[in-house]
Amino acid sequence: DIQMTQSPSSLSASVGDRVTITCQASQDISNYLNWYQHKPGKAPRLLIYAASSLQSGVPSRFSNSGSGTDFTLTISSLQPEDFATYYCQQSYSTPWTFGQGTKVEIK
Amino acid sequence: QVTLRESGPALVKPTQTLTLTCTFSGFSLSTSGMCVSWIRQPPGKALEWLARIDWDDDKYYSTSLKTRLTISKDTSKNQVVLTMTNMDPVDTATYYCARILGSGSYPYFDYWGQGTLVTVSS
Known about the structure:
The structure holds 2 protein chains of 2 kinds.
Chain A: E1 4-7, E2 10-13, E3 19-25, E4 33-38, E5 45-49, E6 53-54, E7 62-67, E8 70-75, E9 85-90, E10 97-98, E11 102-106
Parallel strand pairs in A: 2-11
Antiparallel strand pairs in A: 1-3, 3-8, 4-5, 4-9, 5-6, 7-8, 9-10, 9-11
Chain B: E1 3-7, E2 11-12, E3 18-25, E4 35-41, E5 48-54, E6 59-61, E7 69-74, E8 79-84, E9 93-101, E10 108-112, E11 116-120
Parallel strand pairs in B: 2-11
Antiparallel strand pairs in B: 1-3, 3-8, 4-5, 4-9, 5-6, 7-8, 9-10, 9-11
């Protein structure tokens, strides 16, 4: 199975901060990388698919860079509604796997 | 409008078999390229992918759980069913179903259900 390793596991940031979350795959997954936002009690929300495509309706402050094994989700200016847990997920090969999540908390 | 809704028992006893149903609308699992997955999240832990079923009835399972899982579909009812045998307290989790788009290129989960919490306890 492909292992997805996210870092950090949690971070504290203020509104307006630039936030970066990294995701590393245990093998080359090309651009088969998706990012999700998850808030307690809600369904996860797709943010970015195929490594670089922004899902419809997702603000442009979210972006991803990287391909192969190393990826970085960037939130350019953190907004109050962005406090949540973020997961990367590979769809290169089954079994599909998620990272362990990064919780973004209010500083 | 695409919607998915999970249903099933909130409480199961250890060793029992869990049966969950995902009822969806806004798309058909008989459409080429369409797929549905199950994902779970134990309390305080990460998302875990469980299984996937495709429009052509291909099925894929989590490596660690494949001996316990069965996924099936009823296209006429717009439902996908997941069964998990020999339930254990560590299987306590919120179980989600999600639609998969892009199966022919870069697959991703674009729509999710709200999830259903299953507790395993005697």
